[in-house]
Amino acid sequence: MGGMTQRDDREPEAPVVAVVLAAGFGTRFDPDNPKQLVSVDDKPIVCWSIEAFEQNPHVTDTIVVVNPQVRDEVERLVDEAGYPKVRMIIDGGAERADSTAAALQALGAAGIPPRAKLLIHDAVRPFVEQSSIDGCVTALDEFEAATVAFASTDTMLLTEDLGDRKVVRSVPDRANMFRAQTPQAFRFETIRRAYELASRDPDFHPTDDTRVVVDYLPDVPVAIVAGSRTNMKITTRDDLPQAEQISLEIRKRLARERMHQVFAQVREQ
Amino acid sequence: MGGMTQRDDREPEAPVVAVVLAAGFGTRFDPDNPKQLVSVDDKPIVCWSIEAFEQNPHVTDTIVVVNPQVRDEVERLVDEAGYPKVRMIIDGGAERADSTAAALQALGAAGIPPRAKLLIHDAVRPFVEQSSIDGCVTALDEFEAATVAFASTDTMLLTEDLGDRKVVRSVPDRANMFRAQTPQAFRFETIRRAYELASRDPDFHPTDDTRVVVDYLPDVPVAIVAGSRTNMKITTRDDLPQAEQISLEIRKRLARERMHQVFAQVREQ
């Protein structure tokens, strides 16, 4: 394969690494029953997320970030399912950003190349679409950073404090308002540099990896990749009925797809 | 009651008028089956909304804004239920703002006082909480404008165009990001003035009444009133399972409350 080829600028060999963040303590959920281990349609939420990347042909490796409370159970689930792409299960930190930082540290120590594509995903978004994962991988051919996001159907209000009350500061155009979802995707060297800069800032408490790039590398544009309504985040017990509903829709869709395949095979014979 | 009283500045006599906007054509729903007439737990969505204001002790009058497609059916439903607060059913316009403008016109013609409190509500938010309606009425004692809104659980991204792609412009603090809900509440003279100014602007296409005040009366602060997760907007058929789920929760809660009342009465006897 030596020499320059037409598609050389696309760096097709860069590994695509999924980072599944499952280190949350779910204080808004149920402290004794971590949400990433709760089952939806008989499958633990963390397994839904790992399997989304197992199924994606672009993703080469997965690392799972856990906390001490869930480590044993996640290890057991991964062993039992034998997910071939899962390379490491590492300990995260107290906040989301600490868990991402731990993953960056571990990946650096493991020697992944600077141009590797990282897809950082919240384990509690079990229903991420394959098209969104594909979209992240493709966007990184053109951009250093990308995030899955879903157009807001609600008008959003930016507020500020007025005495003890919140008041509206502005009402941004709905066409430019997106709900951040995950994966959030970055070239490894770019997200590592953003986190290095951020770690020097004592006021650094991001709830979102995209924000680290937006705030600390303001010249790096972050591309929007189409998300979906179903790529919901499970935050509280109130989200579970909707999650069960979505898993049912997915089950129906898969059954339909399988049936179409069977009919197609029958026709071909 | 003559003379100044301690609470005179609260203008307790101002009528509180609910404006229920049911003039949408629901192009994202089902053009042949307008969403405001679809039943949830056997009750048309528009009736859920009208009844929320019927039940609220502060609300004195309701007007319903319709389109020609739904007028007959809404009239029939209102007649059948005999809602005592419904004073008028008027025709709206092509866009949401046209419907609000039609309501302001009709209320002006009917001679409601400038300091009347208006609560403008989307009919397709059937599960508005009584506490949110109360909150609007109270907020207008202190502010000229208020809106029900619900803290965003998602990180929101403000985007801009870069070529044919959306990229992130900023990631506002989640603590200052609210999803606008309704009712949106205004003193009559204030919302009328904002609409007068807006009507002179040919680029005026707001999806939200609050925005009309924010954009055209920038010195008027709009207070945030606590909304709820359940105060959802029914936009597409995909929203119906969640709506049914919420109506079930409401039914259970009402049953519990009724049982508590019965036990309390038994104990008192």
TrEMBL record, chains A, B:
Swiss-Prot/TrEMBL keywords: Isoprene biosynthesis, Nucleotidyltransferase, Transferase
Cross-referenced InterPro entries: IspD, IspD/TarI, IspD/TarI_cytidylyltransf_bact, Nucleotide-diphossugar_trans
Site (Positions MEP for the nucleophilic attack): 174, 233
Residues under site feature: Transition state stabilizer: 28, 35
Catalytic activity annotation: 2-C-methyl-D-erythritol 4-phosphate + CTP + H(+) = 4-CDP-2-C-methyl-D-erythritol + diphosphate
Source species, domain of life: Bacteria
EC nos: 2.7.7.60
Pathway the protein takes part in: Isoprenoid biosynthesis; isopentenyl diphosphate biosynthesis via DXP pathway; isopentenyl diphosphate from 1-deoxy-D-xylulose 5-phosphate: step 2/6
GO MF annotation terms: nucleotidyltransferase activity
Any Pfam family matching the protein: IspD
SUPFAM superfamilies recorded: Nucleotide-diphospho-sugar transferases (SSF53448)
Enzyme class per UniProt: transferase
UniProt keyword RNA-binding, yes or no: no
Family listed: Belongs to the IspD/TarI cytidylyltransferase family. IspD subfamily.
Summary of the function given for this chain in its UniProt record: Catalyzes the formation of 4-diphosphocytidyl-2-C-methyl-D-erythritol from CTP and 2-C-methyl-D-erythritol 4-phosphate (MEP).
Listed HAMAP family: IspD
UniProt name for this protein: 2-C-methyl-D-erythritol 4-phosphate cytidylyltransferase
Organism, scientific name: Bifidobacterium bifidum ATCC 29521 = JCM 1255 = DSM 20456
Taxonomic lineage: Bacteria, Bacillati, Actinomycetota, Actinomycetes, Bifidobacteriales
Gene transcribed to yield this protein: ispD
